[in-house]
Structure of Homoserine O-succinyltransferase:
Amino acid sequence: MVGPLSPDSVGLVEPRSFRHEQPLALDCGRELPGFDLKYETYGSLNAARSNAILVCHALSGDHHAAGWNAPDDKRPGWWDNCIGPGKPIDTDKFFVVACNNLGGCAGSTGPNSINPATGRLWGPDFPIVTVRDWVRSQALLADHLGIERFAAVAGGSLGGMQALQWTIEFPGRVRSALLIAAAPRLSAQNIAFNEVARKAIMSDPDFHEGRYAEQGVVPRRGLMLARMLGHITYLSDGLMRQKFGRELREGKLNFGFDVEFQIESYLRHQGETFVDRFDANTYLLMTKALDYFDPAAEYDGDLARALARAQARFLVVAFSSDWRFAPERSRELVKALHTGGSAVSYAAIDSPDGHDAFLLPNEHYFGVLRAFLNRVHAELEVAA
């Protein structure tokens, strides 16, 4: 059974909104005069308020990580295969919190919110936010929920970077951290991909210097190209060869520039559907947050020194075919954590699915997550 009535689903979930009225100082030197965070929760918080897990989303994710918002939804939350009763992040054991980051386009304060200073949409005037800004805002949400310490903070890709930042920023508030398909900072190649994606968006005639909403238009072509480029980096060459090869849509060459190969059709579909659910200014903000993330920068490039503050136990997971955040980047994290004195478990998962593997079911991968979190839960039970 698939749907909100499935026994391993968290069922129908209603998003909530947390309002913080006080200004939030940002790394860029500006401040937000209060903000909203959209979030969802799954499972029950125990009496000791010790069993909470924060799930952090990646670039195009949001607060809807599991379950269904309506019975007729076409699909559940973005990590539904991993969160629920009996699943690796087991909601029979844990209270799971997922929120939409600042600058997002799914209900949290961002470019499509009203700037109280002008009465207009923030648009391109929304300040640049960093991973550390997100973590600080998430900590305020945790305060609101009465959670002093998370049993775990978990995330894949950009979500894993947030989990890592949590252990540095609030070392006493994180019991364990799951860093999945992540890296301590972006490579020059990854920054280059992000810049090309941003340039595609900003070069669209309908971008209007980021004020497209006021013009009643959307920079569809630019955002579609950005998503197509990004999606190529999320897949592996082997997976694309396996799924599409050089297969032609019509079984013959048409000697033109319309879609002929199945991979072309797939990428265009991904781009077109993305435009209907995501905001261009948010895409610019999220990729900049990725580019700027570098916790070692404040420690003369010494990652081990940066991570020496952490008190959490770590699980670092990498995927064999992930060339965007390759396994060697995860091993770099493991080495620095070991040097800094942290307890670390490392799992290298054999998968053909590229960077997107962290979103997909895999027996070995899910087994590793389940075993690690079962240990966390057992320790909570002993402490109780």
User: Anything to note?
Assistant: The first helix runs from residue 131 to 145.
